């Protein structure tokens, strides 16, 4: 059925709703170590999350929250700012404040590497990230530019120009059905197309 998943870091658990309204929440998995981000891979049957305050990436079974599998770890002070999943290629992406964007095989964790983001001014202070399956592209925030970039292909071998610089872009999500991008700039939530056109404020004073 339709569910929403979210983390309760202070309670060391991942929660789920019984529908798209977050009504009647129940515990999906408890006993975790400071989970911070969560993504769902519906077809693969996985829940991917960061653990220990964002230091590592792990996997659970979507069916019952069991079978916890370790995928990757970056250690203290170098954790993942955000994660996104690519079910088409079987990757989870993790943005890193100091180290660009890493990709990890969601099935075994054995394939790891960093995307070659040609055309980006630097690879520092990466925050929000999402994968648009309908386009085959990755979108991500480079917070110190500050700009939102798009990368062509699942491994991001070529970056295309960033959106006009904003005050402080943070996190983003893709609406893959309508090819719309939703993102925050520290004080409000905005929407645009995937080329940065048609920007509209949909939630002011959201900081």
Largest sheet: 4 strands, antiparallel
- Low-confidence parts lasting 5 or more residues at pLDDT below 50? none
Number of strands: 19
Count of helical stretches: 0
**Alpha-carbon distance between the two ends:** 32 Å
Rg over CA atoms: 16 Å
Roughly what fraction of the amino acids lie in strands?
over 45%
Series of H and E elements: EEEEEEEEEEEEEEEEEEE
User: Percent range for helical residues?
Assistant: under 10%
Structural classification: mainly beta
The coarse overall form would be globular
Give a description of the structure:
The structure is a single chain. The chain has no helices and 19 strands. The chain has 207 residues and is mainly beta. The chain has a four-stranded antiparallel sheet, with no helix packed on it. It has a four-stranded antiparallel sheet with strand order 8-9-10-11, with no helix packed on it. The relative contact order is 0.09.
């Amino acid at each position: 059925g339709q569910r929403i998943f979210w983390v309760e870091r202070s309670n060391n658990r991942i929660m789920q709703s019984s529908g798209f309204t977050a009504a009647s929440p129940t515990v999906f998995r408890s006993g975790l170590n400071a989970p911070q981000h969560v993504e769902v891979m519906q077809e693969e049957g996985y829940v991917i999350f960061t653990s220990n305050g964002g230091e590592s990436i792990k996997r659970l079974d979507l069916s019952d929250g069991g079978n916890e599998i370790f995928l990757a770890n970056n250690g203290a002070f170098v954790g993942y700012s955000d994660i996104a999943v690519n079910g088409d290629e079987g990757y989870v992406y993790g943005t890193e404040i100091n180290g660009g964007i890493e990709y990890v095989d969601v099935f075994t964790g054995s394939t790891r590497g960093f995307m070659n983001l040609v055309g980006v001014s630097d690879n520092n202070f990466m925050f929000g990230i999402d994968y648009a399956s309908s386009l085959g592209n990755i979108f991500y925030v480079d917070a110190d530019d500050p700009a939102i970039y798009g990368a062509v292909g699942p491994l991001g071998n070529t970056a295309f120009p960033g959106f006009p610089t904003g005050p402080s872009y943070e996190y983003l999500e893709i609406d893959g059905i309508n090819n719309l991008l939703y993102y925050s700039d520290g004080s409000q939530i905005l929407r645009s197309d995937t080329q940065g056109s048609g920007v509209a404020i949909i939630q002011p004073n959201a900081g």
